[in-house]
């Protein structure tokens, strides 16, 4: 179970990551931040995102990992957090699986 502070930090990171990726991306694909998870000690965070069209997923993931340091600077400027977590980016496969399940249900 996550604490109130963990939830607040995760929501802030997700919102700022969405803004940052929208501003910095090349706009060949739509990158949507789906959620962020923060460790209980608030030292690590993982931002999950989905990409449309799917053929750009790997290039978007490489881009996000390449700009991690820049995102950390953005987080530093836009938040008032005393300690910044180390942030990693991952594709949200859960969202992809949910979409496939919805598609299968519609076919029935």
CATH superfamily: K homology (KH) domain
Sheet with most strands: 3 strands, mixed
Report strand %.
Answer: 15-25%
Q: Widest sheet: strand order?
A: 1-2-3
Quote the CATH topology: GMP Synthetase, Chain A, domain 3
Helix content, binned percent: 40-55%
Oligomeric form of this entry? single chain
Q: Strand tally, please?
A: 3
Please, what is the average pLDDT?
A: 93
Q: Do you know the CATH architecture?
A: 2-Layer Sandwich
Q: What's the CATH class label?
A: Alpha Beta
Number of helices: 4
Radius of gyration: 15 Å
How far is it from the N-terminal to the C-terminal residue, by CA? Answer: 36 Å
Give the overall shape, derived from the CA principal axes. Answer: globular
Structural class assignment: alpha+beta
Q: How many domains would you count in the coordinates?
A: 1
User: Low-confidence parts lasting 5 or more residues at pLDDT below 50?
Assistant: none
Name the helix and strand elements from N-terminus to C-terminus, one letter apiece: HEEHHEH
Protein name: Ribosome-binding factor A
Keywords: Ribosome biogenesis
């Amino acid at each position: 179970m996550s604490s109130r502070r963990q939830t607040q930090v995760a929501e802030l990171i997700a919102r700022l990551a969405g803004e940052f990726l929208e501003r910095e991306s090349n706009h060949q694909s739509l990158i949507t931040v789906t959620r962020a998870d923060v460790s209980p000690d608030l030292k690590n965070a993982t931002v999950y995102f989905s990409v449309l069209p799917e053929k750009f997923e790997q290039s978007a993931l490489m881009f996000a990992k390449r700009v991690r340091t820049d995102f950390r600077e953005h987080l530093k400027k836009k938040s008032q957090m005393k300690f910044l977590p180390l942030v990693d980016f991952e594709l949200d496969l859960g969202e992809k699986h949910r979409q496939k399940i919805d598609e299968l249900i519609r076919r029935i």
